[in-house]
Amino acid sequence: MRTWSAVLLSELDRIGAAHTEELVRSLLPDPDGPATAAPVMSANAVNYAICYVQRSGSTHLTSLLQNTGVAGKPADFFNVGYRDMRLEREQVFTRTGAHTIASAATKYGCRSVADYLNVISREARGVNGVFGMKMDLCHASILIRRGMFWNPEWKYIYVTRQDLLMQAVSYYIAQETGLWSSMSAGPDTVGFNQQAIEESILYLAGLMSHWEMTFALFGIHPLRITYEEIESAPEETLARCLGHIGVSFAPAQLAPESCYRLQRASRSAEWAERIRANLRGGQAGVATVGHAYR
Fold first, then answer.
1. Residue 101: which residues within 8 A CB-CB, separation 6 or more?
2. One domain, residues 65 and 12
3. Residues 135 and 217 in one domain
4. Which label site among 137, 189, 214, 255 has the fewest CB atoms less than 10 Å from its CB?
5. CA-CA distance, 17 to 202, in Å (whole number)?
6. Structural contact between residues 27 and 104, judged by C-beta atoms closer than 8 angstroms
7. Do 239 and 283 have their domain in common?
8. Can you tell me the distance from the alpha carbon of 286 to that of 193, in angstroms, rounded to the nearest whole number?
9. 293 in helix, strand or coil?
C-alpha cells in the first residue's frame, strides 16, 4: 500500500519533478546526505516560502518584497533550470548575494540539499532575521523528497493568476522565446499557436490542482495572492504579505519599486480574445441549432 508521500511524489514526477531530481543529482555529490554543519539560526529568525505557478508575477513580487528592506531577499534559489540560464543565474546573485543550487557545489562546496539550504538561509537572510525563497512545484519537490518542505514555524504565500487563459498565453510565449522575465535578453518572434496555448492552460490548471493537493496533505494554509492584485494594488499586497509572515514595517517601506516589470504585450490580450471568440462562436452556433429544434 502506497503512502500519501509516495502518491504525492508520483504525481509531481508526472509534471516534471522527476527531471528536476535528475538535475539535482547531477549538481550535488550527495544530494540526500545530511548537512555537514548545524544551521546557524538567529533568535529573531523568520522563514517563509513563496509557492507559485509560472507566469503569475512571482518574480515581480519577490523584487517588491526585497525592496521593502524587511522581507529578506527571496528568489528562485532551487531553480535547477538556471544551470543553463547564465543571465538569470547572475541576476539572482546580484539581487540576493546568494548563488542558486546550480552553482552550490562549485561556489559553496555543498554536498547535499541540506547543506545548500543552510547556506542560502544564511547568505540571503536580512539583517532583521528574515529569510524567504520562492519555488514552483518541481523546485518544492526537491525539499519534499527530503522532508524539508514543511515546517510548522515557516509561513507560506501562494501566487496564482485569476485569468488562466492570459497566463497560458504568457507561458506559451516564454516557453517559445526563453524570455522568462523582463530582464531576459533575446529575440521574440513567436507566432500565434492556439493548440500550444490550449495545452499550456491544461498544464497550468494541473499545476494549480497539484499545489492544492500539496497544501492539503501538509496542512498548509497559505496566504493567497494573485497577479491581478500585485498589478492593481502593490502596496496593499505587500502589506498583506508582510503581515502574514509577521514582520513589522513602516508605510514608507511599501513603496512599490521593482527591478522587474510585469510582462504583458498587446498581442497577449489579442490572442486570448481570439481564442475566446472562437469558442463563443462555436457555442453560439450550438445554441442557435438547439433553439431551432425546441
1. 24, 27, 28, 77, 78, 79, 80, 82, 113, 116, 142
2. yes
3. yes
4. 189
5. 17
6. yes
7. no
8. 25
9. coil
Residues 81 and 101: their CA atoms lie apart, in Å, by 9
Structural domains of the chain, count: 2
178: which 3 cell numbers? 526563453
Please tell me the predicted confidence (pLDDT) of residue 162. Answer: 94
Question: How do residues 102-129 score in pLDDT, each as one tens digit?
Answer: 999 999 999 999 999 999 999 999 999 9
Determine the Cα–Cα distance for residues 112 and 161; give it in Å rounded to an integer.
Answer: 34
φ/ψ of residue 219, rounded to 5? 70, 35
Judged against a pLDDT cut of 90, whether residue 133 lies above it is answered with yes
**Same domain for 143 and 283?**
no
List pLDDT tens digits, range 179-227: 655 554 455 578 888 889 999 999 999 999 999 999 999 999 999 999 9
138, exposed or middle or buried, with CB in 10 Å at 0-12, 13-18, 19+?
buried
User: Which residue, 30, 29, 10, is CA-closest to 18?
Assistant: 10
Residue 275: all three cell numbers together? 481564442
- Is residue 131 located within the same domain as residue 178? yes
- Cα 181-183-184 angle, rounded to 5 deg: 70
Residue 120, SS3 per DSSP? helix
Distance CA 132, CA 155 (A): 9
Looking at residue 82, what DSSP letter applies? G
Residue 132, CA distances (Å) to 102, 117, 191, 275 in order: 18, 11, 37, 38
The boundaries of the domain holding residue 271 are 266-294
Cell numbers representing residue 166 in the block: 492570459
Q: What's the one-letter identity of residue 179?
A: L
Which of 150, 192, 143, 138 shows the shortest CA–CA distance to 169? 192
Tally of residues, the chain: 294
Neighbouring residues of 21: CB distance < 8 A, sequence distance ≥ 6: 13, 141, 142, 145
